[in-house]
Amino acid sequence: MAELKNFQELRSMVLKRPRKIVAVSCANDWHTLEAVFKAKSDGLLDYVLIGDKNIIKEICREKHQNFPEGDIIHCTDEKKSAEITVSLVREGKADFLQKGLMQTRTILKAVLDKKTGIGTGNLMSNVALLEIPGYHKLVGVTDGGMIIYPTFEQKVGMIKNAVRMFNYMGYEKPKVAVTCALEIVNPKMQETVDAAKLKEMAENGGIDNCFVEGPISTDIAFSKDAAKVKKFESPVAGDADIILVPNINAGNMMVKGLLLFGHAKMAGVVMGAKCPIALNSRSASFEEKYFALVACCLISDIVG
Amino acid sequence: MAELKNFQELRSMVLKRPRKIVAVSCANDWHTLEAVFKAKSDGLLDYVLIGDKNIIKEICREKHQNFPEGDIIHCTDEKKSAEITVSLVREGKADFLQKGLMQTRTILKAVLDKKTGIGTGNLMSNVALLEIPGYHKLVGVTDGGMIIYPTFEQKVGMIKNAVRMFNYMGYEKPKVAVTCALEIVNPKMQETVDAAKLKEMAENGGIDNCFVEGPISTDIAFSKDAAKVKKFESPVAGDADIILVPNINAGNMMVKGLLLFGHAKMAGVVMGAKCPIALNSRSASFEEKYFALVACCLISDIVG
To answer: B199 to each of A237, B173, B211, B236, B244, how far by Cα in Å?
Structure first.
């Protein structure tokens, strides 16, 4: 099975495929525009910007960036911008969405609208795709951004979303580590009980196209040496593709630690709708926004 | 206020003080012995080993390490070894404890025994003291090792333990970041509500000798740049000494991520008894065990 070592390899895969079209909601933000412009000039995608035409033009003038005015749909209202963006995907005029300078809940509300949205009825969840120097391949961490205290059923949905993403990245059976502070079941820690149940469920065919291990500690998931010391044998040990974290704080803190001090790079993607959503923190760097676009190009023919 | 940049500076402080004596429970483990021997030859401490004399001698023979036999109290039973170790502190023959090759719960049980133990009635909690390349000083993360789902009262106890540790390291008012996935109060996330209450409690004099900020996200706690982008103003932003994490999984995963990929170094210490306890995972490296000893030397006159 082909594994992707880094974002560069992911980008190379995208370049072999037809260009996608991204619809950008509330595009009036420089880092967002910079990422979209670079992705276009790299030949990865075309775009439609939805946002305040005057602000976008002003930002571009400041940054000495020219682009065709026809690429903008003028809209100064956040809610309306989200609705237009979603409608472009629904009508087949765009392949996926990017969130610009706006509240996450506004774009999600438009996505999930029962009449005009692009929901599938499945759980929506966040996958942080990470390139970590020192780890031999990309890894997806879910969910450090959206689901606060996931129930067992939500954990199943989170795994399915992340697995679908990896399947579309070319992985037949991605390795899922259901991580906890412990690698043994402790009835006082519900996370470890859930982890064992998720593993059993996957073994019995309840979660397809992946290999699930749990409970497993973070060091074992990432390091064969740690697995050896702790005598933990599993194909997932030291070779995880997907890390399911037990709660939003755990995912958030691990990912932020890796970004701050592990020189990791991240692409933030929301899965579960008819198309992926490139969704980063408003304070995210240009690079994060660019990688999110690249990842979404690869996985945006997931459902339609 | 003097801040400690790294373990080297912490070690220099220890060298200026009188030697301490560590009692090592179940010392029959090479990494544990190696750490103790190095700390002794560095002039930091003297030791008493409690454990299986034959195994200890065999390990030392293998590693070509000589030491006076009189330093061992022979004991092959784990529970008994813990009891002897604790009694040495109680009787003033040792300044602090180190856990060797044994279950954490066995040593804690002996420490907390109402008749023969060295408990104080206060909460016992774990502080992982970290040196992280890229961060300008040591930082203590509590609690990624012992307390699974801390209550509000336990969070108060965890802060007090970590603050006491930093006070003894020479910090008058360490900066405590009560971290969450968010830096604003969200009633759906109890952690953020607790964080705001902890800040208020500290401001009203309910937690002494420290400065508490919360809720605060991990990136803001560690990075002034992130604080600037998110317009978060606080003396703790980008300058945290102590990170209070909302649950064991969050602390465990962040710390393991930093150890695996951030080249961080760690000293694991348990606070709350009459002396600190150098307590590392059984799979911890020699270096981790050594740093835990160094840290405990500095803070072991906390109560007695």
So the answer is: 40, 14, 8, 12, 12
Q: Touching check for A227 and chain B: CB below 8 Å?
A: no
The ipTM (two decimal places) reads 0.94
Could you give the CA distance from residue A263 to residue A267 in angstroms, rounded to a whole number?
14
Question: Residues A191-239: pLDDT tens digits?
Answer: 999 999 999 999 999 999 999 999 999 999 999 999 998 899 999 999 9
Cβ pair B217:A256 closer than 8 A:
yes
3-state SS assignment for residue A239:
coil
How far apart CA A269 and CA A76 sit, in angstroms, is 25
Q: Is B212 helix (H, G, I), strand (E, B) or coil?
A: strand
How far is A237 from A221, CA to CA, in rounded Å?
5
Across the interface, of A144, A249, A257, the residue whose CB is closest to B246 is A249
Q: Which of B148, B222, B247 sits opposite A249 (nearest CB)?
A: B247
- Contact (CB<8Å) A253/B252: no
Test A252 with B222 for CB contact under 8 angstroms: no
Please name the member of A191, A258, A283 whose beta carbon is closest to the beta carbon of B257: A258
Q: DSSP letter for B237, please.
A: T
CB proximity A220 to B under 8 Å? no
C-alpha neighbours within 13 Å on the C-beta side of residue A132: 30
Identify the H or E element spanning B152: helix B152-168
Contacts of A215 (CB under 8 A, 6+ apart): A178, A179, A180, A182, A183, A184, A185, A191, A192, A195, A196
CB–CB contact B180 A259 (8 Å): no
Partner residues linked to A72 by β-bridges: A49
Q: What is the pLDDT of residues A99-149, one digit of tens each?
A: 999 999 999 999 999 999 999 999 999 999 999 999 999 999 999 999 999
